[in-house]
Amino acid sequence: MNESQIPTTLVNTLRSHTAPVNAITFSSLGGTYILTGSSDRQVHLSRVEPVNPDKPSVPIQKYAAHGYAVLDISVAQDNQTFASVGGDRSVFFWDVQNATGTLRRFGSNTSEGHTSRITCVTFAGDSDSVLASGSDDRSVRLWDLKSRDVKPLMVLEEAKDGVSALAVPGNGYEIVAGSVDGRVRSYDVRMGRVTVDVMPGPVTSLDITRDAKAVLVGCLDEKLRVMDRTDGTCLRTFPAEGDVAGYKNESLRLKSCFARNEGLVLSGSELDGKVRGWDVITGKSVGGMVVSESGKVISVVKWREGSKVYGTQGLWAAGGAEGVVKIYGGS
Fold first, then answer.
1. What are the two backbone dihedrals, phi and then psi, of residue 126, each rounded to the nearest 5 degrees?
2. CATH number at residue 215
3. In a 3-state reduction of DSSP, which class is residue 153?
4. What is the extent of the structural domain holding 99?
5. pLDDT per residue over 140-167, tens digit each?
6. Which residues of 292-309 are buried (b: 16+ CB within 10 A; e: fewer)?
7. Is residue 4 included in any domain, yes or no?
8. Is the terminal CB of the chain with fewer CB neighbours within 10 Å at N or C?
């Protein structure tokens, strides 16, 4: 397969959720499993590849402690634990093996927790020892997984509007936060320093390259941008000027991502149920793929590099308003 193409072989279809899917993440090792979070207030753990291709895929586990919509999920590098957040204003910390209850809930038993819905969560720190959560209350809060202290380790309150996206570079001591105020803030927690990049619209998603030198930023001005994290310059914009690919993002939080060894960018659209791709080097469209036959919004796209299922080809998963997650691989 051409390296600039979007993988198009349907690997699996997950239909276990009963409401829109807002969050998707692959397991950290090998990408064998996938976690999905939904407005039905549940997180489901499923196999990427169906056990029996002739039968509908059934989740291995269902985690049902949330009282409100699940908006984001992050899995630890050792695959033993994961975190989920949403309208509950608490960070739910889970043991993957135990679906009956959370290990801990951060923010629910302290006056210093989030005061509005939590939109994003990610592991950070040395050996995933910290959880970072971002909220509509305009703050990022850091929670110490090794301590029994119920209070946040740190509260970052520079944002002037809701925090919509979080990303952590591989070094673990930086936190990158995107906000509805049109800013991308990079916090160096060790140095106590924050760097601010101004974007042309509210930020909806972030994805950082493995070398941490660039970040993909999705905004509500209907553009995706690859930004140089060293000097804040824009390296590439998608869609490019004159590209009539039909991409639309004016009002919803669409989560886009790098794909194919960071050679592609993938994103859903508010327009037509398609996932579109662009070549990072040339900036040109590589086409689109209909994921929702009914044209429902595809709000989250996630890539998994080097899957066991398709060798080094990788996989991608997409879901949204229809409540269905589809997983695709190389041919």
1. -65, 125
2. 2.130.10.10
3. coil
4. 9-329
5. 999 999 998 889 999 999 999 999 999 9
6. beeebbbbbbbbbbebeb
7. no
8. C
